[in-house]
Amino acid sequence: MMNEAGFIFSPEQLKYKFSEHHPFNQKRLILTIDLLEKVNALDTNTILPARMATDSELLLIHDEDYIRAVKDASAGKTTASFATKYGIGTEDTPVFPDMHEAAAWLVGGTLSAVDLVFEHGFKHALNLGGGLHHGFRGKASGFCVYNDSSIAIEYMRRKYQARVLYIDTDAHHGDGVQWAFYDDPEVCTISLHESGRFLFPGTGSVNERGTGDGYGYSFNVPLEAFTEDNSFLYAYEKIFREVTKFFKPDVIITQNGADAHCFDPLTHLCGTTKMFFEIPKLAHELAHEYCDGRWIAVGGGGYDIWRVVPRAWSALWLEMTEQTSILKEPIPESWISRWQSESKETLPTSWYDEDSICPVIPRRNEIKRKNERTLQSALKSIKERRRK
Amino acid sequence: MMVQDIMIKDVIFIDEATSIKEAFDKMEHHRIRHLPVVNKEMEIIGILSDRDIRKASPSILEDWRYELLDRPVNEIMNKNVITALPFDFVEEAANTMMEHQISCLPIEDNGQLIGIITDTDLLKTLVKLTGADMPSSRLEIEVPNESGMLSEVASLIKKHNINIQSVLVYPGKELDKKILVFRLQTMNLRPLTQSIKNIGYKVLWPDLEMKI
């Protein structure tokens, strides 16, 4: 198991904190690491540090004036136009002290993950502090300042000429990453998300397939509100397998937002933890089949930080390190008693959720059928290519 | 928004001596369905649609007389061209197209062809007007049909420090109601929807019960 997979974390990543009551809460990282420790799946001495991304690394994707604006905002120098021009100082992305440094540490974590895989002989690497997929070249959006995945992809393109497959299972459309490589046929993006009719950012329609040379290299599967595990996983497996077979990547990067769960307060999908156990399983399999194991995983959204994210993200590491037999055991009493007093919700006692946590959805079959149609439409460009 | 803001300026056109076959090839090549016909002074003298060509083509069921397609387009083009002006409002142009049941409008300035808009351009504009092409969340509220409602809700949005991407106001099913649809630059609508409910307005979307 050793050196097969690397777990990246640095305390500096916890400083990415907008405010006390903001839904984006990096306490998730502490809760996850503590859970992994208590099930003996992660020795904290083996955790590898992140680093702070340099300005030239940020410039791989972001505009110079935007980076300057983030730095100014970090230092308390903001003007009213920052909110509209750069998306900084809004309700979603308020300014906080050392915002630039904290955001650059999240990026650096994902870059460290890339280095482990391409330089240090690791097969897989995990940076749960990354996954900030809404960050645009010149604008913060949806809780995201710098887009670590976009930067890491560009970094891999330039340094290793790698063909990169990015797959995003966050409940929100992975817009920042998609638009950054929309015309690039060497980077393929897949996003499964709750349909933009229901949820931020509104984009990610099935017809967004890329442009110019990049046409046919962006895939979107917008799912109906109240989509459940089976329908989600069916679409996920189908599109991930088909696209990987067609694109033949050198490396897979997965964005593992944990907000498609029915407990998540910001979205309307209806998953259970089963979804988060199955998602990395397939990524792991395909990375070995096509990429000699090269798999980089990052975090993302996830706003039920007590009941959902620690289990979902721990399972990601368990899959990476082939320790999934732990999922059959109960959640350790020691973890529950350590954190229960801080959580308003009763902490879960098992890894798998009971089916009863999801509401009964009368439209279930209709939702399934709609998602199936969307999936077929998403695969259209591959089918067209085959016909030619 | 004016027609000149959305029109295609790089117009593909033909003259009246062009053969039907050439016109057809041009449409295929550029993947368009309409070709304005102009004279030497660039004045619009006709319009040719793919339907006009189809009407003039022989049936696939009989032997083709290909020489028919060498005839000039002025024999089949529509000479009564409905046009719009660059300073017309987009909604006027849309109305004209609906009224005449046509899907394209050449734009003229002093009789000369300077642009064209089609139903596709109007749909693109609709997407833009509704703000659905920018990162945003959709909020739909039912308010009484009285003055000041939009301003009240808008100031609440301002209090939450959220930028408005777009707003649409339209009459509700009942006469005493109006519907406000906002596209807002925020990922988290919950605090705002709570404030709106607190002052007594009905949030129609995101409305979860409706969907279950």
Note down, in words, how this protein is organized:
The complex is a heterodimer of chains A (about 400) and B (about 210). Chain A is α/β, with parallel strands linked by helices and about 400 residues long. Chain A contains 13 helices and seven strands. In chain A, strands 1-2-7-6-3-4-5 form a seven-stranded parallel beta sheet, with helices on both faces. Chain A is globular, with a radius of gyration of 19 Å. Chain B has about 210 residues and is α+β, with helices and mostly antiparallel strands. Chain B is built from eight helices and nine strands. In chain B, strands 7-8-6-9 form a four-stranded antiparallel beta sheet, covered by helices on one side. A three-stranded mixed beta sheet of chain B has the order 1-2-3. The mean pLDDT of chain B is about 90. The interface of A and B includes residues 87, 172, 225 and 361 of A.
List the helices and strands and how they pair.
The complex is a heterodimer of chains A (388) and B (212).
Chain A: E1 5-8, H1 27-38, H2 55-58, H3 64-74, H4 81-86, H5 99-119, E2 124-127, H6 148-160, E3 164-168, H7 175-180, E4 187-194, E5 218-223, H8 229-247, E6 251-255, H9 273-291, E7 295-298, H10 309-320, H11 333-339, H12 364-378, H13 380-387
Helix pairs in contact in A: 1-10, 5-6, 8-9, 8-12, 9-10
Chain B: H1 3-6, E1 14-15, H2 20-30, E2 34-38, E3 44-49, H3 50-56, H4 90-100, E4 104-109, E5 112-118, H5 119-129, E6 137-144, H6 149-159, E7 164-171, E8 177-184, H7 190-198, E9 202-205, H8 208-211
Parallel strand pairs in B: 1-2
Antiparallel strand pairs in B: 2-3, 4-5, 6-8, 6-9, 7-8
